[in-house]
Specification:
heterodimer, A: 197 residues, Double Stranded RNA Binding Domain, nine-stranded mixed sheet, 3 helices, globular, B: mainly beta, Porin
């Protein structure tokens, strides 16, 4: 019995406990609409801010944004990846083929709400739907890139989501631009169908 | 406290002497596991965390029946990888865990009873309680199952002294698909004491 107890103590004392570093918790999820022919598209529009989703949509529509010092490099990196795949950025009123709506949040269990983009263009207040499964809530640190087809219009007035890229990971004490960049790059890397070339 | 332990050990010692005389055998073994088939696909790294406890009642010097329970814990940290299913892809580091706890009725045949080296073959049948887990990012996916299990075994008992044998054995655990989990297979190499 003593040997048994000792063995169990030894066994449990060396139990591996998974991730040692915050960046080991980073995951990148992407999904796309199988009916979308990305190859025939070429232009996209994107806001110059990243909406910060706080959980309670403000009554006055005054949403919060990720600070430019953080959002700027992320948006620039999305642009770099889109350019590399042959896309051209245009203004939102220049009839883009797709629109990327980026959002981020750091708290737990928040649903992803469409009305956060009314500030940018009321056209996107209608919401959207996805031809692929999307978890309605993510926790910890999340950056979401939601690509929708502005020319799609279903009877409910919602636009169709054609691609989604979700970056999720535990937040560490200090912000790492490099960590976010790597994850954004990974989202595009694992979505080669976005390449229009 | 030390005295209590000492007394306990002494009592256990006397107990084992007496049980051996009654043609019973207890065995405690350290077990190293190597996944094969589905288990290897899930976790290819060997398990160095394993233990086995056995009891045998000798019907004749050659035949013994009894039961056993063992525990093997498999773990592997996978490299960063992308997993794609239809139009969805997920990238990250996966931490995979498999706990296996078979509880089996067992039968052994001993070729050379009361000799220095006593080889044996055995078979076990029962169930395997399994707990499979994948941690990815901040998410955890678990899958529990109880599956029908059996295992053949070969081994040898080596007489260390009048009351104690060393045991070296190889067992191949097979559990069949059930409870929404694929059947799990693994080989174990066991080293231990029999008294």
């Amino acid at each position: 019995m003593l040997a048994l107890l000792t063995s169990f103590t030894l066994l449990t004392s060396c139990y591996p406990d998974g991730a040692d570093y915050a960046d080991e918790t980073d995951i990148v999820y992407t999904a796309f609409d199988k009916e979308m022919d990305f190859h025939s598209k070429g232009t996209y529009a994107m806001p110059d801010k990243i909406v910060k989703i706080t959980g309670d949509y403000p009554d006055d529509g005054e949403v919060e944004y990720i600070k430019d010092i953080y959002a700027g490099p992320i948006l620039a990196n999305i642009d770099t990846n889109m350019t590399a795949y042959g896309w051209t950025k245009v203004a939102q009123n220049a009839n883009p083929d797709v629109v990327i709506l980026p959002a981020a949040w750091s708290t737990t269990y928040i649903s992803y709400w469409y009305n956060y983009w009314c500030w940018w263009d009321p056209y996107y207040c209608g919401g959207w739907w996805y031809p692929y499964p999307v978890t309605s809530s993510y926790s910890a640190g999340t950056l979401l890139m939601n690509m929708i087809d502005p020319n799609s219009n279903d009877p409910n007035g919602t636009r169709k989501g054609v691609w989604i890229g979700v970056i999720n990971g535990l937040l560490s004490g200090s912000y790492s631009q490099n960590r976010v960049n790597n994850a954004v790059n990974q989202a595009f890397k694992q979505s080669p169908y976005l390449n229009t070339k | 406290m030390k005295k209590i332990f000492l007394a306990f050990i002494l009592m256990t010692g006397f107990f084992t002497i007496s049980v051996k005389a009654q043609s019973q055998m207890f065995s405690l073994q350290y077990s190293i596991g190597f996944g094969t088939g589905n288990t290897n696909e899930f976790i290819s790294a060997p398990s160095f965390r394993g233990i086995s406890f056995e009891y045998r009642k000798f019907i004749t010097p050659n035949h013994a029946i009894g039961f056993e329970t063992s525990y093997n814990f498999f773990y592997e940290k996978k490299d960063y990888a992308t997993y794609t299913d239809d139009n969805q892809s997920l990238s990250g580091i996966q931490f995979r865990y498999l706990h296996s706890l078979p509880i089996l009725a067992a039968y052994d045949y001993y070729f050379k009873p009361n000799q220095k080296y006593n080889p044996f073959v055995g078979a076990g049948i029962g169930c395997n309680i399994l707990d499979q887990r994948v941690d990815m990012g901040i998410y955890s996916f678990t899958n529990d199952a109880v599956q029908f299990a059996f295992r053949p075994e070969v081994g040898v008992l080596i007489q260390a002294n009048r009351n104690l044998d060393l045991i070296v054995a190889a067992k191949y655990f097979v559990s069949t698909k059930g409870n929404d989990m694929d059947g799990q297979n693994y080989l174990t190499i066991n080293l231990g004491f029999a008294f």
